[in-house]
Amino acid sequence: MTVLCEDTTCKYHNSHDKCICDNIKIMHLGKCGSRQKGLLHYMAKALAAMKNSNMISCDELNDDVLLGLYFIMKIYHLNFSVVTYGMFNFITLQEDEHSKGLTADEIIHRTQDAEMVDKFTEDILNDNLPKTKTQVEENSTCVRNKADLGYGWLSPMGIFTEAPYGMHEAAAKEICLSTGLCDEFLLADRNAAYCSYGDFLINRGYCLIHNPSVLGGAHVSRSDKRLTKAQREFLYKYFYDKGETDKAEQFLQE
């Protein structure tokens, strides 16, 4: 039996307006009981979240919107940035990190990558939604165990990436870009208490050496996760070399 369907947002809808579900269920008053979210469903949710703007508030980043943003980025070959206004964070889609954010109308008038559309359509049909990637390798160009280090990010592997005062968020973004963590950041659980690149790294076990008050020397911001052996050894040497032996010894006592 051939069932015609005009719901282009369902994963069982094909280009001939036919349903390809093997076990379609028709409910009362002809309502479909087999509908499942398709590629256009996710993309439409993300574009709708942009409203008449060129950004999406991080408060609106539910699972459907996040997946939609991911698909849009891959299909239209776009990048994303996190923009902060006061206490509020927003995500923008753009051609590159130096370009302005694109509106939904500007995005849909770009050329799609047909191969990516076919790939994601097939993946969704097979219940193979994208999952966050685990990156085990760190950026080998980062600085390690340098005695005169300033402020910056320290990875669980003990690799230090220097970030001048006031630039730790930009440095966090560069770490995500260089280590392949941007997809994972975009698809991260927005129910967690973070939305910035920096908060994301903290959640992944990084710690930040900074001086938020400008006074009183360096401070280490971290999650409630236990520091790794590599981090403790690095922080001991970091503070010891600065003459702060009491603070240095705290990291050996953990």
Write a structural description:
The N and C termini lie far apart (67 Å). Helix 1 crosses helix 2 and helix 8 packs antiparallel against helix 9 (245-252). The chain has helices spanning 39-49, 63-76, 104-108, 114-125, 168-178, 182-186, 197-203, 229-241, 245-252; strands at 56-57, 79-85, 88-94, 152-154, 160-162, 207-210, 219-221. With 254 residues, the protein is α+β, with helices and mostly antiparallel strands. The longest helix is centred in the N-terminal third of the chain and has 14 residues, at 63-76. The strands form two sheets. The protein has a four-stranded antiparallel beta sheet, with helices on one face. It has a three-stranded antiparallel beta sheet with strand order 1-3-2, with no helix packed on it. The chain contains nine helices and seven strands. The chain folds into three domains: 1-36, no CATH class; 50-125, no CATH class; 152-252, no CATH class.
